[in-house]
Specification:
By secondary structure, the chain is an all-alpha fold. Helices cover about 75% and strands about 0% of the residues.
Length: about 120
């Protein structure tokens, strides 16, 4: 494993910001061609959790702002990131805010949109 890859893993472990962590994992996967299974083994995480974090990279700025303003939780982020496009994310996010949805209720909303 190269020094750059080791440095990215080290930065990931030290970083507290969820979106910077997602960017670091994205860099490992896309730029350094490290497989998700190898990332998960190195970080001692499940592959599914690594995939959840990676999915955060596709969230819209509006949803990200909602997280930083504490309008939604990290769990809401993971659920909303499952949506296919920005329009769906924005509509679901606005519905979450308007109806003060819990993470469980947000999961039901996202499943309804997806399936």
């Amino acid at each position: 494993m190269g020094d750059e890859i080791k440095a990215l893993f080290s930065k990931f472990l030290q970083e507290k910001d969820i979106f910077i962590r997602a960017q670091l994992l994205n860099s490992l996967k896309r730029d350094k061609s490290v497989r998700v299974t190898d990332i998960s083994k190195h970080l001692n995480m499940k592959s599914s959790y690594v995939s959840h974090i990676l999915r955060l990279n596709k969230l819209t700025a509006l949803v990200i702002d909602g997280y930083y303003s504490k309008a939604i939780t990290p769990t809401h982020l993971y659920i909303l990131a499952r949506l296919q496009n920005h329009q769906q994310m924005i509509a679901a996010y606005e519905h979450v805010l308007a109806n003060n949805l819990s993470a469980f209720d947000t999961e039901i909303l996202v499943r309804t949109v997806l399936y």
